[in-house]
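Write out a record, focusing on structure:
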Amino acid sequence: MTYSLIIPHRGSSKLLQRLLESVPKRDDMEVIVIEDIDARGAGWARNQGLKRAKGEYLIFADSDDYFMPCINGILDRHHTADIVYFSATSIEEGTGKPSWRAARVNWVMAQEPKTREFLLRHTFTEPWCHILRRKFVEKHKIRFDETPILNDVHFSTQAGYYAQSIDVIPEKAYCVCNHPNSVGKRRSPECLLAFTKVMAETNVFNHTHGIDRYHARMMRPFMQSLLKLHLSTAKKCWDTMRKAGVPTKVLLKEFAIYPYHLLHWFKRRKKYAPFA
C-alpha cells in the first residue's frame, strides 16, 4: 500500500461524502475515516488513524474540505522525500466565494527555495497540503495533540524538523473550506488555554532544537483576555506559558512587541491577498 488517507469526522455526512467523492479511486490508497462519536477531538481521531495506517505515505484531510482533480497526478509521481508539500485553494462554505485560508501557504510556496524550505519546515502548522513518509513519523513517534484546538500544530512542527528531505509541488491540489463556526474560532476559556499551551510548547520545541523562531500567536489568548479584562483567564494563560518552559524574559519581550506583530499581521494580509 502506497498511501493512507486519514480523515477525522464528526458532523455533516454530506460534507464527508463530498470529500470522499473528490478522492481518486486508486488501488494503492486506503481511506481511513475515524468517527469521533464521543467528541474526543480531531487530534484523537487522527492518532487512531495513525494506528491503523499501512501505507508508505500518510495524507490527512479534514472532512469538510475536499481535493482538487490534480491530486491524482501528484499521487502518480514517484516520491523520494520525507515530506511532499503542495498548494491549496480556499472557499467560503455556503457561498463558494474565495477565502483567505490558503493564502499564506501559497505565499510561502512562491518564496525563493531556501526561505520557502525554512517556512514550510518550521511555520507551516496545518494537517493538510502535505504527504508524509510514515516511516519517519513512526521513528520519531510524532503524534497529534489531543486538545480541543490546534491539535495539528505540534505534529506539523515536529514533522518539519525531523524530515531529512522535503519536496515542493506548487499545484493547488486541496480546497480548504472556511466555516464561520469552525473549531479554530472557538474562544472559550478552555480553548484559549489549550491554544496557549500548544503554541508555547511549539515555541519551546523550536528553541530547544536551535530554531530561532517564536510564533507570536502564542500571546494572542493572553492579550485578548487582558484587553477584555478577563484577568483570571489572562493569568492562567501567562502561567501556562511559564509552565511550558517559555522564559519570563521572552514573555516580557513578546508582550512588549505584540503591537508590532499585530500591525505586521495587517500588512501581511495585503501581502498574502494575491495568493488566495
